[in-house]
Amino acid sequence: MEILEKRITVFGIKLSIVENEKEIGRCYIYIIKNDLHESPYALLEDVYVDEKHRGKGIGTKLVKRAIELAKNLGCYKIIATSRFERNNVHEWYEKLGFKKWGYEFRMDLK
Predict the structure, then answer these.
(1) For the segment 51-93, what is each residue's pLDDT rounded down to a tens digit?
(2) Which of 48, 61, 62, 103 is spaced 20 to 30 Å from 55 by Cα?
(3) 93 CB contacts (<8 Å, ≥6 apart)?
């Protein structure tokens, strides 16, 4: 028995909102393909809005654009992650149409 390695191509897109030449919000989506499905899926990461600009719909615009991009790229799902204690973020994701689906398991390597 042996373990074979095959490199696959994954690409990411950074979405930013800039005001007066300063980034005030950002998120990333990574498009991932595996052998389980014909279509890829999207991983939404690092959604961030500068504290002074929160509550103005910037995060919502970013996430809605990420969802639109994922659909246009043929993804069958988009996954967003959030830490357990961030209940307000969880509620926000649910308002945007996400569903609680499972657990994320993590191991820090550095």
Answers:
(1) 999 999 999 999 999 999 999 999 999 999 998 899 999 999 9
(2) 103
(3) 63, 80, 82
